[in-house]
Fold this sequence. Notes:
Nonspecific Lipid-transfer Protein, Chain A; 7 strands; 10 helices; two-stranded antiparallel sheet; Four Helix Bundle (Hemerythrin (Met), subunit A); five-stranded mixed β-sheet; 2 domains; alpha+beta
Amino acid sequence: xxxxxxxxxxxxxxxxxxxxxxxxxxxxxxxxxxxxxxxxxxxxxxxxxxxxxxxxxxxxxxxxxxxxxxxxxxxxxxxxxxxxxxxxxxxxxxxxxxxxxxxxxxxxxxxxxxxxxxxxxxxxxxxxxxxxxxxxxxxxxxxxxxxxxxxxxxxxxxxxxxxxxxxxxxxxxxxxxxxxxxxxxxxxxxxxxxxxxxxxxxxxxxxxxxxxxxxxxxxxxxxxxxxxxxxxxxxxxxxxxxxxxxxxxxxxxxxxxxxxxxxxxxxxxxxxxxxxxxxxx
Length: 281
């Protein structure tokens, strides 16, 4: 099995696991608050349905040679896009009331058919074929598989943590999310005024700090690369899971440090600034 085949299998299994879990929830549980700010469980599910629908449509267009933005597209400001997307998903769950599971099944059946079409590699289509994404522009079909893993894994945690205080990320998703970490932070970066001197971070992830990243933030931009930082203003160490929950805004710095899930050395104020710069979507 190739790496992309493994990732497709992970994406499909995540969707199947979520679907099974949702089928066991009571009507009252659908209305509980999730770990995703301002969203109930049913809103998260609506988001997962809509995301699969839009992704399937975009991949279908990509197979037809269309990887540019839709007609009349105007690039949105990141915060405004997040707010409008959140309201869109709440409106959609009202429309889907009583039919959420059926919509989930239909959307992921169609998306998985798109995965299978790309996997077949017919008519010049491959995993390098480009498809449109509203935040990232034209990106490869393989990157779209990663993105679906990200959405499913993080929102699976959002749903389960509403009922299970010890909920964890799906283990099969963790290596993919770590590989995506620089791209994710790039998507959610909120620039500030240019700093007189850059802030240097050292991010040490996993057992024996098996993954290390060095990051330099100038306020208006940042660079992140694998490897140890020699002179960091702040060093952060965590397990892979806790690092991911922190970088996705599901674990705050205050909670992480007080619980021992995050270990920091250096100028502790710099971790607060990290949360301002990398606020999430």
